[in-house]
Structure formats: structure tokens, C-alpha cells
């Protein structure tokens, strides 16, 4: 056990699984070389942000494959490799590039098990960076997990911390279905205690990071930390928050969310994806359909506006959900009740 960054936790998960299972291979742009250099020992950065650094040196060209800049080709190759016995982990780099290879994911990998009567497996993991807060502009900052969640046959994972990232990635690599594993690029330097040994975190089991009696906050990925920060501030004001990290949007742990709302009677959902048809909509609909009579106040969504993500740092800050916006949403549905109690 020791302090590890989000980046190191992912790297360690990949290394441990590659040592454990020779069928695990890595594919992606610049994952061995990187930053425009050659795949030499002194130059093997391990991708644009160094997440796979050191893996080429240990496992070589046969298992760490630098690919051409053609997402359609190498994601298709990874799906084929998974269907024929390997367990590839493909790095899509930015999730925004999924438009170049959506057919391979949506119409091929996601459909194999169903189309072949459950007899085919596709143990494919696609890692990709997502999200704003990095001034990476409109084409490199989207949060497209609702798109993947919409597709039957895919599992969608959004880790919120280094500990979560390692356990969920190992679970993803060992899963026999295609998994989309989304990493918020702003979180790569976040650190916390992470076990040295391999461990797994089951899909479809939410993590309740804190409990309170007044409101339920559901948040994903980087937004979990912001929800916890808002809850810390609200606790000083006498408002108790339960914060739920679903970990996976497909499968989604509906039971934990519904049980919490039945106890608090209030729901705030935080989602950095575009506000139309996002997870905040989906979770709000779930609660409205299955726990409506438990609600004491309207459901609140903390989401960005329906625009591309700005490049400008001040504009991006205005665009993104944050702890202050979450706290304001909570106060809007709890303040009158607290005043009556006082």
C-alpha cells in the first residue's frame, strides 16, 4: 500500500494483468513511443500523457503495439483479436475520436455475444480520456459516456479516484464483454493510497462515499470529488448529503440510488456530459418512475449548457459543473425545510 497517482494506478493494473495473462495485449497511438519520438528506451513516454510508460520495455513489440493514426483500423483489429482469443486493451486516446471507429464498437464488438447466441465472447477494453477542465477545446473535451451507455452490449466504467481506477480496470480486463473505460484527463496526477497487489471492484455496485439524511447526490468520475467537496461545505451549514458514485453507468446500480432517495427524499445529479440525453436525465427519470412518492422536492440536475466545451479557461470554468454549483442546487431544495426546523 502506498500513494499512487491515477496515472500510476492504471499503469500498475495494466502491468499486473499483462504479467498474469499472456493474452493481454495493448494497442494504440504512441503507446510505446509517444510525443513524436521513436520507440526507444529513453524515448518511450507511453502515450500522450505517459500512462503506458515502461510497458513496452518489459513486454516488447509483440504485446505493446504502436498503431497508425487510424482509429477505425486498430479498434477493428482489437475487436477481431478479442473475438479470436486475445484480451486486447486499446487506447483511443481522446474519447472525442470515437466518431472514427463507432461502427467497430457499436455494430461489431457490442453485438457479437447477442448475434451468436451467447457463444461468442469479446474481451475487449477500450481506454479513453474524456472531459473538460484541461483547456483542450471542443474536439478534445467531451464527456461521451451517455453515447456508450445507450448501446446494448457495452459496459461503461468511469473511475473517480486512483483506487477505483486500478480495481475497475483489472475487473474490465478480466471481463468477457467489451468495456469502455473512461479516464478524466484532469485526474491523472490525483493521488491516494492504492494497494500494491491486484484487486477487482465489481461492476454495477455503486460506492457510497458519505452518508447524510437530507439529500442524495449522484455524481460520476471527476464530479464525485466535487460532490464530496460540496457536501463538506453543506455539512457546516447543517445539511447532510449522501454522495453516490455509480462507478459504472452500464450496468447501473439502480437499487442503491433508489434506496438512498427513499431515505432522503431529495436528489441532485451531477453530470459533465452535454445536458440532453445524459446520465443526469436517465437517473432523474429512474427516480421519477420508481421513487416519485418518496420525493419531498423537485429533482435538480447540475449540468453544463448545451454548447461545445470552450477553449478559453474562464469560459470553460463557467461551463463546467463545480462544487459551488452543486452546493447551490442542494440548498435550493433543502433551505426552506431547514428554516422550518430552525
From TrEMBL:
Keyword Methyltransferase (UniProt): no
Pfam families, sorted: Transket_pyr, Transketolase_C
Keyword Oxidoreductase listed: yes
GO MF term list: oxidoreductase activity
Keywords in alphabetical order: Oxidoreductase, Pyruvate
Domain Transketolase-like pyrimidine-binding residues, every copy: 4-190
Full protein name: Alpha-ketoacid dehydrogenase subunit beta
